[in-house]
Amino acid sequence: xxxxxxxxxxSEHEWVRAEGDEASIGITxxxxxxxxxxxxxxxxxxxxxxxxGEAFAVVESVKAASDVYAPVSGKIIKVNERLFASPxxxxxxxxxxxxxxxLMSDPGELATLLSAEDYNKFCEEE
Amino acid sequence: xxxxxxxxxFDVHRRSGGKMVEFAGWALPVQYNSILAEHEAxxxxxxLFDVSHMGKVTVRGKGAxxxxxxxxxxxxxxxxxxxxxxxxxxxxxxxxxxxILVYRFGPGDFFLVLNAANTDKDYNWLVQNNIEGVKIxxxxxDFAQIALQGPRSEKxxxxxxxxxxxxxxxxxxxxxxxxxxxKCMVSRTGYTGEDGFEIYTGPDSAPALWDAILEAGKPxxxxxxxxxxxxxxxxxxxxxxxxxxxxxxITPIEAGLGRFVRFDKPDFIGRAALAACSSxxxxxxxxxxxxxxxxxxxxxxxxxxxGREVGFVTSGGYSPTLKKNVGLALLEADRAGQxxxxxxxxxxxxxxxxxxxxxxxxKHYKKK
Lengths: 126, 368
Prior knowledge:
Chain A is built from 4 helices and 9 strands, in the order E-E-E-H-E-E-E-E-E-H-H-E-H. By secondary structure, chain A is of the alpha+beta class. In chain A, the strands form 2 sheets. A 6-stranded antiparallel sheet of chain A has the order 1-2-3-9-8-5. A 3-stranded antiparallel sheet of chain A has the order 4-6-7. The radius of gyration of chain A is 13 Å and the shape is globular. Chain B has helices at residues 10-15, 35-44, 64-71, 119-128, 153-158, 206-216, 227-236, 271-280; strands at 5-6, 19-23, 26-31, 46-50, 55-60, 83-90, 96-106, 109-114, 135-138, 144-149, 173-179, 182-187, 196-201, 222-224, 284-291, 302-305, 308-319, 324-332, 341-346, 349-356. Chain B has 3 domains: 5-52 and 143-236, Gyrase A, domain 2, CATH 3.30.1360.120; 55-139, Alpha-Beta Plaits (2-Layer Sandwich); 283-356, Elongation Factor Tu (Ef-tu), domain 3. The A-B interface holds A 36-37, 39-40, 42, 58, 60-65, 84 and B 19, 30-31, 34-37, 39, 228, 231-232, 294-296, 298, 317-318, 320, 325, 347.
């Protein structure tokens, strides 16, 4: 299982790549493996506000729909529309397939997330 | 998963990386590697499924034929030895107890295949309605059941048996076939919309038989396949699934299965209600639809027409073959015409869909 060292992680299996006040968010390799073949991604609109812990997107595998939760709060400033036509990218390249970019309202929330090492432990225990 | 029933192939699935889930009280693989890859393999080559969870019941005795004529909506009288018929069992009000296969082995010797989730309910229903001179036995545990499905199935299986499978016609069974050394019953049946076979063998013979089929089928590209692909394949072929398109609250007429209800045979349970439903026209109708807007329809999502709820989705999902999101819905009959627009309510959003002809997928495989 791939867990890049330079990202932050949530216990709901999202990853966060922070650059300044901006955070790109996706789902982890562990998450895509657990879901299986992803056939659909539903994303919020640019301008929507999300709160940490809130469902902001939906991924659907062949079998079922699953919520994706925002690890940090803020305003959506970009959505990855490539995933509309090619949702399978989430399977093949989970860390390249960001769902949204959020302008964080409280970058301090990043400190509450898991490091790669902690997330690896979390996955092993789960 | 310890409290779940295990099929004779449980250890084989675990060993070969099957992702085990609960289904109807059984531990079964939902997939091995990828539902999409397994689906595609069955459409283009072959897939091997463990369907040992299906219920099996024998009905024997001099009254067996009359009993089954009364229980089933189909005409058991058309069967010859070694032939099967798809039929419904209905309640007096026309709701469905289960959809089943009835095989005739001999004049007083029948073999029923039931949905796993309904096995106990069906068995009790049969016993409750039994008549003199009929012995009903639940033999579910006596057999493993393996389905080999896909256009290359015959070629793969033929390599493992002396019996000429080319002569085995659609919905026919051979009762004494040796496959890779195992005594088997083999029928040309399935639940995928492809040519294929269902193989019944003793629980102890199943693991070696499973391995032998995968090994012999390697050059043909056979893969083990799970419940996920089984469901997406049957949805494309619009084969009904009990608890979705059929239930105690849905009649076969509403579900579009009127051709399996024979009013020209002796009386059967549910006949009066179904005849009434058929002659005045069912108020609800099962229809197929394709999403026009982005969204995946799932079972029980509401369906609206002109802002009013007119039914619900019975099954839905992504069709790997069509590369579209499709579904079946039980709708008010006058809202279910081909080309009619409907809205599927997905997570509170109304998304446009259009009624299309079904099945979504039809292959003209061997039905001689």
